[in-house]
Amino acid sequence: MMRAGSAEPASRRQVLIVEDERDLARVVKRHVESIGCEVKLAGSGEEAIVLADEPFDLVLLDVMLPGIDGLEVCRRMRAMNRYMPVLMLTARSSDIDKVMGLESGADDYLTKPFSVQELLARIRAIFRRMDAMASPQGAREQAIAVGGRVVIDPNTREVRVAGQAIDLTQKEFELLMHFARNPGRVYSRAQLLDSVWGYNHDGYEHAVNCHINRLRAKIEEDPREPKMLLTVWGVGYKFSTEPVHGT
Asked: Are strands 150-153 and 158-161 parallel, antiparallel or unpaired?
């Protein structure tokens, strides 16, 4: 329960846990409630979609569900007008499974078995990002033009590539903004996890790789030969300061 002087917000966060393993669902529910959240449980994909008509501050979504699986549930949630962060829980550990989760629209993923401390750290990081997005800005930021090809509006979160609006997930947008605000600076995967994801755990640096590849596919003319989001071999990634020609 919340302690006196806790930094948790006055209004309790609303969290939906979608998990068909009842014992695990109850354990996760208890720990999420311990940081000041109100929790609802769904034991199937169909039930989750019905409950998603309500606003939630976070959805903890298992991939392996009876009936409609978690990937399809996430896709349907992303088709709704209301945005809800999704933290995907998966027993699958291969990169392709994680990529599928990210492509379905998940903001983050956590592989089972996971520690309670790591789960709560991920949840707090998502809440901090959502609070930062919702906080009023003192002055409107100017649009950022990158390489003569990409234009980013920080106020509307709109991104245009060669004049065409593109859709980015929350994490893709935050990653793009981080690079665009720091052109030429090289970041390791661990640094990007700290700065963009809000946490850094061993074994999760491939989450950065997945997002880099997805971002390149959306902003580069040829993702196989990127000219903006560059790999610095043995170190990490950087945004080029050179203009892109021929686009």
From this structure: antiparallel
